[in-house]
Amino acid sequence: MRAPIVVVGASLAGLRAAEQLRAAGWEGPITLVGDEPHPPYNRPPLSKAFLAGTASSASLTLRPRPSVADATWLLGTRAVRADLDRRTVDLVDGRTLPYRALVIATGTRPRRLTCPGPSVGRHTLRTLGDARRLRAALAEPGARVVVVGAGFIGCEVAATVSALGAADVTVVDPLPLPLLGPLGESLATELRVRHERRGVRFALGRHVTGFAGRDRVTGVRLDDGRTLAADVVVESVGSLANTEWLAGNGLDLTDGVLTDAHLRVGGRPDVVAVGDVARFPGLRYDGVPRRVEHWSIPTDTAKHAARVLTAHLAGAGAGADTKAGTGADFGAGVGGELAPFAPLPTFWSDQHDFRLQSFGAPALGTADARVLYGEPGADVVVGYHREGRLVGVVALGGRAAVAAAARHRADLLQQSPTT
Amino acid sequence: MKVVVDMSKCQDHGQCVFAAPEVFRFDDAGRLTHLSNPDDALSDAVEEAADVCPLQAIRIEH
Ligand SMILES: Cc1cc2nc3c(=O)[nH]c(=O)nc-3n(C[C@H](O)[C@H](O)[C@H](O)COP(=O)(O)OP(=O)(O)OC[C@H]3O[C@@H](n4cnc5c(N)ncnc54)[C@H](O)[C@@H]3O)c2cc1C
Ligand code: SF4
Fold first, then answer.
1. Are B47 and A295 inside 8 Å of each other by CB?
2. In chain B, which end has fewer C-beta atoms inside a 10 angstrom radius, N or C?
3. Pocket lining: B58 vs ligand 2, CB cutoff 6 Å
4. Domain A5-109+240-336 - what CATH class?
5. pLDDT score for A176
6. Does the pLDDT of residue A23 top 80, yes or no?
7. Contact call for residues A146 and A231 (beta carbons, < 8 A)
């Protein structure tokens, strides 16, 4: 039997990769390997509706396209090693899977704080199991909650938890404002005010030095000497890419898997990376390779990577497994048919009764942020500029703000890659 | 091809409108409207719209 295309990581990016391989004409076997026991599910509600108790776990399940009904799913199965020269993946149960092509889709896991203290009562939020445990801990009436890290997940959890009626919710971050990096000072200030009005407290410019308590956490120690009383601690301090299983292949695994402009890995035409784990060059802006942890990226990367792989396999004589007409090998991108991967970054974040909606790369233009629509305090859209050019827009508010931001999307899309 | 949007799930993200403007649009009141029986020639765009909906509110029946 012909070896399958093996997809390691069976979440959003892995599922989309399998679907897009079919859409790109791959008719041969596909095997997905995922270490979670669940079929792919949607993570954004874990910090929002699912944590709030208004969405069921069944509603999170991602519906696969009918085209992947014949794929083989190895769930609850971790890949422990890959040999990219021999084209094999070793599984935790001792099996070795040979592959025709490999899709790396292993995503990230939460980074943990390493400061001293008990571990019971400390949570992270990435998986369904994490969300269930956190929800159970929050069910104790009057729980005092400390969220460490004022990024997207931290801010969302603080919003959800405060609406659940926790006795108090405090967000700790070493930076002076929540989401300062992606939003810049003016919008981050506005975000802070909106959270505070709804009962969330902040301890900003502060580091956590340790956790109080014997068997379980009773407080969070800060570097100003204070201890915040806490029954539940949520650590949302960034993520680490799941790349250990790829070690030993000479790849650049500095922060995720480095790819070329067509999402290929290690100069190999038969290995691609997709989703949160892929560190691809940001060609629309500065060309710097970055991981992008937005929900839209798994789908965008999967589509591009699947076309690249399928074209390579068709060119390499896998004609029996690919539909006709996909024979071009996209080479190094020079003279190839497919333009380099340069998606328009897009994300949203729902907090309290408002939404943040971003298009483009606001973080690159926070030094020149201008209000494009509305006014702080109400529905507002901020434009971020670099060298006078609009590089990102963020809406904060309701439907009107989001619609106003979306009107700049075409403008942002038109900006050609800088290479 | 039949397209069904579960309006109890839809939260006006508008991603479907970007992916398939021929099929999905916001009306003047800002509410999502869509063609329920778009031409099969649009099926790629509609599948893409279903993929990018963060709420998985879009269902396609062939
Ligand atoms: C709580 C939360 C809220 C979010 N909210 C938003 C939001 O509002 N807006 C937004 O734009 N984005 C949001 N995101 C981000 C978005 O969900 C991610 O970008 C997306 O899930 C990335 O998908 P992925 O498939 O690349 O990675 P993951 O979803 O991390 O999937 C990787 C999979 O690979 C598995 N795996 C890892 N190592 C191995 C191995 N060795 N062998 C086998 N399997 C392995 C993992 O267990 C996992 O199932 C949120 C994320 C979280 C956690
Ligand atoms: S993408 Fe989904 S949530 Fe957004 S408007 Fe379309 S159907 Fe509604």
1. no
2. C
3. yes
4. alpha beta
5. 98
6. yes
7. no
Question: Does residue B10 line the site of ligand 2, with CB under 6 A?
Answer: yes
Q: Do A399 and B12 touch (CB under 8 A)?
A: yes
Instruction: Identify the DSSP state of A362.
Output: G
Return the structure tokens found at A365: 């233009």
For A112-237, CATH number? 3.50.50.60
- Name the CATH code of domain B2-61 (choices 3.30.70.20, 3.50.50.60, 3.40.710.10, 3.40.50.2300): 3.30.70.20
Which ligand minimizes its atom distance to the CA of A129? 1
Q: Which residues of A touch B51 (CB under 8 A)?
A: 16, 19, 299
Measured in angstroms, the CA of A321 and the nearest CA of chain B are apart by: 21
pLDDT at B5 over 50: yes
Domain ranges in chain B? 2-61
Residues of chain A with CATH 3.50.50.60: 5-109+240-336, 112-237
**Ligand 1 near A46 CB (within 6 A):** yes
ipTM of the complex: 0.92
Pick the residue whose CA is nearest to atom 17 on ligand 1: A43
Q: B30, A400: Cβ pair inside 8 Å?
A: yes
Report the phi/psi class of residue A76: left, alpha or beta, with left for phi > 0 and alpha for psi in -120 to 50.
left
Whether A99 shows a pLDDT value over 80: the answer reads: yes
- Can you tell me the distance from the alpha carbon of A227 to that of A208, in angstroms, rounded to the nearest whole number? 9
Distance from CA of residue A239 to its chain's centroid? 9
Taking phi first (over 0 means left), then psi (-120 to 50 degrees means alpha), and beta for anything else, what does residue A267 get? left
What does the pLDDT look like over A363-380, one tens digit per residue?
999 999 999 999 878 899
